[in-house]
Specification:
- It is a single chain.
- This protein has about 300 residues and is an alpha+beta fold.
- The chain is built from 15 helices and 5 strands.
- The chain has 3 domains: about 20-165, no CATH class; about 170-235; about 245-305, no CATH class.
- Strands 1, 2, 3, 4 and 5 form a 5-stranded antiparallel β-sheet that branches.
- Strand 2 (about 60-70) and strand 3 (about 75) form a beta hairpin.
- The radius of gyration is 25 Å and the shape is globular.
Length: about 300
């Protein structure tokens, strides 16, 4: 096993507890499009055209992960205000917190080249030419669900949460089981209504439908139990939560390996030259670690190498 893989894999589940508590309130650009594909069961091209023609959606604020500096009272301070006159005790009391930083849809309007992240991302998806510059961009779930174009397709907070959770497992299989279960129940009710009206009940039809419904319910229960077992196994493999001091040590090791030995640019944690190469090496060994986990460790490594 590679050194970087061993370090990252050991702390993968624990690392998410280090992530910001705001994660459930935001969704990355690419993940939201995947969620809509699952929810609508439509082609990606159709979904993108639907969104890109909606002015409200194009004017969504977007967010990027970044660090804010807090004083000992939890008040955010401007890092540029720290200079040689700042007392050492004041500097030691500062704390850096990972958070989602808000940007207006036209925040880069006057950049060269001009950029409107939401619109540009959708356009590049249509062209099948998305680059990794959008990997660290997010929309706020609450903002999305208020849009008329999303309300019109029936996506609400409950359905959003269900589909997001389903995407962490075999999403389509589970949803297909749920839909089949619903169809069986509807057929059962319809058959009962017809039978009661005609007073000419065929017991075989009723018994067969009940057996089919029971079988589907057992299949769903078995699949969910399997998922729960896999999750519990993953948790059991971690002896204890990683101490912050240990996490800092790990990040310094990663920084030395990636930056000094492999000449990787830690300021670009989602770039192919860093994130991509590490993921490829891990997959070559027959293992998997998510792109976000690798990026988060690279970000922490960069912070602790400064």
């Amino acid at each position: 096993m590679g050194i970087i893989y061993e370090v990252i894999k050991k702390a993968e589940e624990d690392f998410y507890s280090w992530d910001t508590e705001e994660d459930n309130y935001f969704v990355s650009f690419y993940l939201f499009i995947e969620l809509l594909e699952l929810y609508t069961d439509d082609r990606k091209e159709l979904i993108i055209n639907y969104l890109i023609n909606d002015d409200e959606f194009l004017k969504l604020n977007f967010y990027q992960l970044g660090f804010k500096t807090l004083d000992k009272n939890g008040v955010e301070i401007d890092e540029e205000s720290i200079d040689e006159n700042t007392g050492i005790d004041s500097i030691k009391s500062l704390d850096r917190t990972l958070t989602y930083i808000k940007y207006s849809y036209d925040a880069y309007e006057y950049d060269d080249p001009q950029c409107f992240p939401t619109e540009d991302y959708l356009s590049l998806v249509l062209e099948n030419n998305v680059n990794d510059s959008f990997d660290d961009m997010y929309w706020k779930v609450e903002d999305i669900l208020k849009l008329n174009c999303i309300i019109d397709i029936g996506l609400n907070a409950t359905l959003f949460s269900e589909h997001r959770e389903a995407m962490s497992s075999d999403a389509r299989t589970i949803l297909n089981y749920i839909r089949e279960r619903k169809e069986f129940k509807e057929r059962l009710i319809a058959e009962q209504v017809r039978s009661s009206r005609s007073q000419n009940i065929d017991p075989n039809v009723y018994d067969i439908t009940v057996k089919q419904l029971t079988k589907k319910e057992e299949e769903i229960k078995g699949l969910l139990n399997k998922i729960e077992h896999l999750e519990q196994t993953a948790i059991a493999n971690n002896d204890k939560a990683m101490h912050p001091r240990t996490a800092n040590t790990v990040s310094k090791i990663i920084a030395a390996l990636t930056s000094e030995l492999l000449n990787m640019d830690l300021t670009q944690p989602f770039a192919n030259d860093s994130n991509g190469k590490i993921m490829a090496a891990i997959e070559k060994q027959g293992n998997t670690v998510s792109k976000d986990v690798i990026a988060n460790w690279l970000k922490l490594a960069h912070e602790n190498s400064m």
